[in-house]
Write a structure and sequence with these properties.
- The chain is an alpha+beta fold.
- It folds into 2 domains: 93 residues, no CATH class; 251 residues, phage-related protein like fold (Alpha-Beta Complex), CATH 3.90.1690.
- A hairpin with an 8-residue loop joins strand 14 and strand 15.
- The protein starts with a helix and ends with a strand.
Length: 383
């Protein structure tokens, strides 16, 4: 199923909403009844399109047999494509086969079979919880999201005097585009393993490639600059608490961070910190003398902070001047689009002197913080 026309329709609706607000803003007036009805209808249609995309992605997960036992036909397809893929890895080229498999030559290499690509994505999500917590899309093209901005013109309520006009203030919609940046992931595999006919080369390659992609995505989801690249949550988050010191954190600052996220987003909220920051957090106590951080082996990495799970990432900055060592919130506010069509290229000669081959994987991905109200960061004071 292709979503090109559906996404084009969505982008048209977003543009119409922007024009609607611009018209009211220029006339310094509120919506009339007709405009209200038009806005509500277009907003509903956008939500319906987003829900359709989400449901389609969920249906692919079921169809690929990730959560339920695969049908005999699906299992047969996976085995066929695995054999073809194993042959490609070992020989470095697509070998003619009597079995129909979905593997063709692309611009950067060979497009790997859909079942293998799905397994790589599934493995990435399993070993990269931060990426897995994002609101995920897997579509071609770009997706445009309308984002409401009240930073300049906020809705105001005030006492009124008869025969005196009220000032009209409305927020503005801006557009945020989720596209795709080309990324190459390089891993090396021993030829001794590949040449062993008894060795499960497909599972090994999936594991190695998934690990390389997961490491990249975790870093970008947190630290991506957003300048000709993915935008990470530390860059895109607009809600922040500034620490009083450059190298120390207080219990009150942690509490203030949690309160930055509205109550309706607290259920799925988590903390992400560096292991050194975790050490500092373990020493913090509230005014009653109780530690803020408690052990809970059923959550995250075994700790709860103010009742919410804590995840560790080596990509998070350490506590130092101007750094952002802690991020908190519901990370579904970070949207990601991992476009379909993963490609793979075997580098048979480049690492010959190491008795290894290179596996170069190409994919397109983008991330951006769309729902900024869902996340908050702690920024240390200047040194």
């Amino acid at each position: 199923m292709e979503f090109k026309q559906l996404l084009e329709k969505r982008n048209e609706l977003v543009e119409k909403i922007n024009q609607l607000f611009s018209k009211c803003d220029e006339g310094n007036r509120a919506f009339n009844e007709e405009e209200k009805a038009s806005y509500e209808a277009m907003s509903k249609e956008i939500k319906d399109i987003d829900e359709t995309v989400r449901m389609f992605d969920a249906s692919k997960t079921l169809a690929d047999g990730k959560k339920i036992p695969a049908s005999s036909k699906a299992q047969a397809d996976f085995e066929k494509e695995s054999r073809a893929f194993a042959s490609y890895v070992r020989k470095g080229k697509i070998v003619e086969t009597r079995e129909a498999v979905n593997m063709t030559t692309g611009d950067n290499g060979a497009i790997i079979p859909a079942t293998i690509a799905a397994k790589i994505i599934e493995t990435v999500e399993n070993i990269c919880p931060i990426f897995n917590m994002t609101t995920k899309y897997n579509v071609k093209g770009t997706i445009t999201f309308p984002v409401y901005d009240e930073s300049e013109d906020k809705v105001q309520c005030a006492y009124a005097t008869e025969f005196t006009a009220l000032d009209s203030h409305t927020g503005k919609f801006t557009s945020v585009v989720l596209g795709g940046y080309l990324v190459g992931a390089l891993t090396k595999i021993s030829k001794s393993l590949i040449n062993n006919a008894q060795f499960d080369v497909v599972s090994y390659v999936i594991s190695k490639v998934s690990l390389a992609i997961a490491r990249f995505l975790e870093k970008e989801c947190l630290l991506g600059t957003g300048s000709s690249a993915c935008q990470g949550v530390l860059v895109g988050a607009t809600q922040k608490v500034t620490a009083a010191a450059a190298t120390a954190i207080t219990a009150d600052e942690i509490i203030d961070m949690q309160l930055k996220v509205p109550q309706q987003y607290q259920d799925g909220a988590t903390w992400i910190v560096n292991v050194d920051t975790l050490g500092a957090l373990r020493k913090l106590k509230d005014k009653e003398g109780d530690y803020l951080l408690t052990k809970d082996l059923t959550q995250g990495f075994g700790f709860l902070l103010l009742g919410k799970p804590v995840y560790l990432s080596d990509n998070m900055p350490k506590i130092k001047a101007n750094a952002k060592p802690i991020v908190y919130g519901d990370f579904s506010g970070l949207y990601s689009n991992l476009r379909p069509g993963i490609e793979m290229q075997m580098l048979n000669e480049k690492y010959a002197d190491e008795h290894a081959i290179g596996v170069l994987t190409w994919f397109e991905v983008d991330t951006k913080v769309i729902e900024t109200q869902k996340v908050a960061v702690l920024e240390m004071a200047a040194g």
